[in-house]
From TrEMBL:
UniProt entry tagged with the keyword Hydrolase: no
UniProt GO cellular component terms: plasma membrane
Membrane topology, as annotated: Multi-pass membrane protein
Localization of this protein: Cell membrane
Alphabetized UniProt keyword annotations: Cell membrane, Membrane, Transmembrane, Transmembrane helix
Source domain of life: Bacteria
Chief place where the protein resides: membrane
InterPro entries noted in UniProt: Virul_fac_BrkB
TM segment ranges: 12-28, 40-63, 105-125, 153-173, 193-214, 226-245, 257-281
Signal peptide: none
Protein name stated in the entry: YihY/virulence factor BrkB family protein
Coiled-coil portions: none
Length: 317
């Protein structure tokens, strides 16, 4: 009996030292799910204000250009699944033409919505920083609040630029690939290759955005290898979540009791799951950074011990 209990204790010890288990325990212990819920709440209102400002700006800049409008709607539909109603029977909160028409003559209201967008977006990026630093057990950033807000604006601008550039590259790559397949008479594999290219591009976009959040937004110093792996984990998780978003979000629309507010509820769930992915990747970075620090200390002590042994040998000789 004692031997069985000893083996059980050894098995439990090995289980709780597994890296995924340590990450999950740290995430729960430091209130990761609660912080993810708060981030989802802030992100919802930031996206709502961004919709009004973005569609109003796009409607003014590319008025009459249906191709650019389609690109804009496609990019938004890929970034926030379930938000745009494309008229395919898949549901959605808003129709593109309704948004373009509603925001075409707002005038000074655009200024108000822009201010709301900035406040809510800065609140979201600030909340993301607090959540990430909380998982690392770090306090607030020691920086002038005004300078910190300016830095956050730069981070938001960088995130937007990355999204625009990758979207443009995706459109160019898909059009080039379609033209090449037509020339080579490979129409049978067109859809597979196009979907594969789009999937790889979304992984690249999500990984870049995760790297920006982990490095710039969080203001946390971590080894580059840890940052790189954490960004890849968050990027892959976000892409997989987006890929299966239709099934995840569609389950709410199939419930007649939730139909009246199914899309809004589904968007909250989507933002919550997305926030969980980012914070779980951050928890992994926290564990990996702590392990790297322990390994560095052991290596330092080992070198120091070797130097002491050499010095003693020299003295004796």
């Amino acid at each position: 009996m004692a031997l069985l209990l000893a083996r059980l204790n050894v098995g439990l010890f090995r289980f709780f030292t597994l890296e995924p288990v340590r990450v999950l325990l740290l995430y729960v212990e430091r209130r990761g799910p609660l912080m993810a819920a708060g981030l989802a709440y802030r992100l919802f209102f930031a996206i709502a204000a961004l919709l009004v400002v973005g569609f109003a700006t796009v409607g003014i800049v590319i008025a009459g250009n249906e191709a650019l409008r389609t690109i804009t709607v496609d990019a938004l539909d890929q970034s926030v699944p379930g938000l745009i109603d494309r008229g395919r029977g898949e549901g959605g909160l808003l129709r593109p033409q309704t948004l373009f028409d509603a925001t075409s003559g707002l005038g000074w209201a655009i200024v108000v919505f822009t201010a709301v967008m900035l406040v809510t977006s800065l609140g979201w990026i600030g909340g993301m920083r607090q959540a990430m630093r909380g998982l690392f057990a770090l306090g607030p950033v020691a920086m002038n609040p005004v300078l910190l807000r300016i830095k956050d604006l730069g981070t938001l601008a960088l995130l937007g630029a990355v999204m625009l550039v990758t979207t443009a590259l995706g459109v160019i790559a898909n059009n080039t690939l379609d033209a090449l397949l037509v020339v080579l008479d490979l129409g049978a594999v067109t859809q597979v290759l196009t979907q594969g290219a789009g999937f790889l591009l979304m992984i690249l976009l999500d990984t870049l955005m995760a790297a920006i959040l982990l490095r710039s937004a969080s203001a946390i110093e971590m080894p580059r290898a840890v940052l790189r792996r954490g960004a890849i984990i968050a990027g892959l998780g976000s892409t997989v979540l987006r890929t299966f978003s239709a099934q995840i979000l569609g389950s709410f629309g199939n419930n007649p009791l939730l139909f009246s507010f199914a899309v809004i509820l589904a968007l909250f769930v989507w933002f919550f799951l997305l926030s969980q992915v980012y914070l779980l990747a951050t928890a992994w970075c926290a564990i990996a950074t702590a392990d790297a620090e322990v390994d560095a200390q052991r290596e330092h002590h080992a070198k120091a011990g070797t130097l002491r042994q050499r010095s003693r040998r020299r003295v004796r000789s």
